């Protein structure tokens, strides 16, 4: 363990174990910090009986803003500095697909935010549902663009538009319109919007940034999320075309997302803490058994180190029920959860 010379009383940077946090239902709910989250952040940054500063990352399925912007919001809400180098959201791994496709349809999020995210990732030609509605208003008979949306959207030449892949970056704000447009693309000949496939199986691939059917907000009961849109689209596609839709989801619980997190954590520990060895244990704190606990447990089967799942009771999982995927520990809230992890390491 390395002693940090600048801190008084001397703090010890923990080079042994590390922490990974889910966000919604663990640290935040409905745009507000969960009260125990602020104390939990202080605790892991040295305000604990051992003066330990423990390296940590964030791994959320949420999205819809750039990582930089999301970190600025979180830093303010949790009263601690959080950098993009320790942050992964649902669409972060999608940046690795930017070189693969030229023209893509990007769906979800507020206004033009997801187009901006996609541009930052290096996607070259980004089309949004708004562009398609602006070009042909009767695409969505009951949805009209606002003046602002009309101004921001671009007119397309549909005879030349060839969508190579569909990316659902964030939650749809207009399920009916977005599903109509996604169906049109899926049922086209190779993504050519004005050519309909007779066999209904020549459309481009569709990627979702995660598959959470429900998520935790300020409402008493969990709200439907992107996984619900995916299920709805699959059912619609089957009803309309008679074929099964093969869609791909990123995010937790996918093993690839945890592998991505492992690489990020290694880089973060090395670059910001000078630790050049992998952590012996990574504690993952989540509220959703189906994504957080399942993902951590399944990754633990193949990971080189121990990925330890901790379920908190402040989000999707509710006290008194049996989680569908069993965590190694259940805690009331995130403050109790980080104290548990630190104590277990002593
Ligand atoms: O849309 C976000 C939600 O599905 C889950 O976010 O932070 O709990 O992974 P999080
Ligand atoms: Mg969550």
Automatic annotation (TrEMBL):
Annotated signal peptide: none
Any one Gene Ontology BP term: glycerophospholipid biosynthetic process
GO cellular component, one term: mitochondrion
Protein name, as recorded: Phosphatidyl synthase
UniProt source species: Penicillium angulare
Parent-record interval covered: 69 to 414 of 436
């Amino acid at each position: 363990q390395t002693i940090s010379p600048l801190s008084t009383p001397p703090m010890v940077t923990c080079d042994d174990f590390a922490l990974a946090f889910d966000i919604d239902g663990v640290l935040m709910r409905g745009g507000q910090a969960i009260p125990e989250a602020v104390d939990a952040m202080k605790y892991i940054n040295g305000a604990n009986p051992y003066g330990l500063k423990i390296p940590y990352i964030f791994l959320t399925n949420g999205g819809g803003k750039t990582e930089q912007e999301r970190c600025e919001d979180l830093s303010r809400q949790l009263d601690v500095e959080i950098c993009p180098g320790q942050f992964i959201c649902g669409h972060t791994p999608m940046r690795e697909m930017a070189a693969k496709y030229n023209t893509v349809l990007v769906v979800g999020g507020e206004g033009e935010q997801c187009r901006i995210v996609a541009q930052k990732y290096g996607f070259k030609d980004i089309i949004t549902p708004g562009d398609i509605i602006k070009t042909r208003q009767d695409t969505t008979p009951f949805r009209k663009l606002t003046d602002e949306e009309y101004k921001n959207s671009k007119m397309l030449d549909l005879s030349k538009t060839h969508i190579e892949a569909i990316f659902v970056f964030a939650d749809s704000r207009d399920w009916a319109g977005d599903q109509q447009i996604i169906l049109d693309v899926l049922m086209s000949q190779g993504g050519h919007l004005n050519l309909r496939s007779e066999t209904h199986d020549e459309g481009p691939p569709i990627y979702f940034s995660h598959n959470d059917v429900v998520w935790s907000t300020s409402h008493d009961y969990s709200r439907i999320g992107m996984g619900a849109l995916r299920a709805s689209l699959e059912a619609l596609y089957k009803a309309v075309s008679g074929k099964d839709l093969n869609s791909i989801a990123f995010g937790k619980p996918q093993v690839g997302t945890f592998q991505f997190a492992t690489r990020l954590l290694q880089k973060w520990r090395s670059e910001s803490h000078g630790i050049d060895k992998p952590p012996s244990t990574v504690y993952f704190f989540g509220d959703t058994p189906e994504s957080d606990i399942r993902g951590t447990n399944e990754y633990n089967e193949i990971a080189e180190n121990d990925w330890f799942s901790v379920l908190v009771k402040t989000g999707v999982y509710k006290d008194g029920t049996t989680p569908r995927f069993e965590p190694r520990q259940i805690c009331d809230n995130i403050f109790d959860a980080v104290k548990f992890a630190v104590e277990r390491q002593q």
